[in-house]
Amino acid sequence: IILPIAMFRFDLKAKFIYISGFILVLFVIIFGKFRKISLDSFDSVNFSISDIYLLLDFGSVFESFLKVLMYVPDKVDYLYGATLFKIFLYPIPRELMPSKPESISVIVSKELWNLPGVTMNPGLIGEFYFNFGLFMHPFLFLFILLFFMTFKFFINNFNDLYSKLFITGFFSMTAFNLMRGYTSDVLLNLIVLFIVLFFLKKLLRVRI
Question: Residue 107: which residues within 8 A CB-CB, separation 6 or more?
Fold first, then answer.
């Protein structure tokens, strides 16, 4: 919260932003090392990416991520982009479209945890692996590229300080939620963001 405000208010240099980000990540890693995670059943699994999730202490997200790696596609087939396609169908009520794909959290809960009615998220990387396996990399790259292009679009089209602070905070929180959540509500969130910024821009033109 503080860093975006300082960035736009005091015109900070990029070097300061990078150093601050590095210190923040380092703090999260050290802090995560001293917290408990119940991963006894996954001691035999060793992946470099799993070490990152462990250090960041994402708890159940990490366990769901490991289940995806262990059981897909041997026990459960790939989703072939179904949960990503849901991004465009999210605003449509399921009563009007019964065939609408489930969210990745619901699928993981049912198929891998056998816990219907509960949501268990495997994180962004886990969702892309569940959809495409080891061929996920170009799709993941395009998704992240579109995410940053959308951020740049909003920043360039809303020039006032309050809107830039709101946009930066929104995309920062969305990026964090994607790492431990799922993609299907991103489009709806962007629509809400656009509506909020539209009215904020109108209000800033009114002198009180």
Answer: 79, 83, 130
Q: Which residues contact 4 (CB under 8 A, 6 or more apart)?
A: 164, 165, 168, 169, 172
Do 61 and 123 touch, CB atoms closer than 8 A? yes
Amino acid sitting at position 19: I
- As a whole number of angstroms, the distance between CA 123 and CA 127 comes to 6
**In this structure, which amino acid lies at residue 172?**
S
| Dihedral sign (CA 180, 186, 188, 194) | positive
pLDDT of residue 52 exceeding 60, the answer is no
Do 128 and 139 meet the contact criterion of CB atoms below 8 Å apart?
yes
pLDDT digits (tens, 9 = 90+) for 85-96: 888 887 788 888
Residue partners of 205: CB distance under 8 A and separation at least 6 = none
In whole angstroms, give the CA distance from residue 51 to residue 140.
20
Q: Kindly report, residue by residue over 3-17, the tens digit of the pLDDT.
A: 555 555 556 565 666
Distance (Å, whole) CA 133 – CA 138: 11
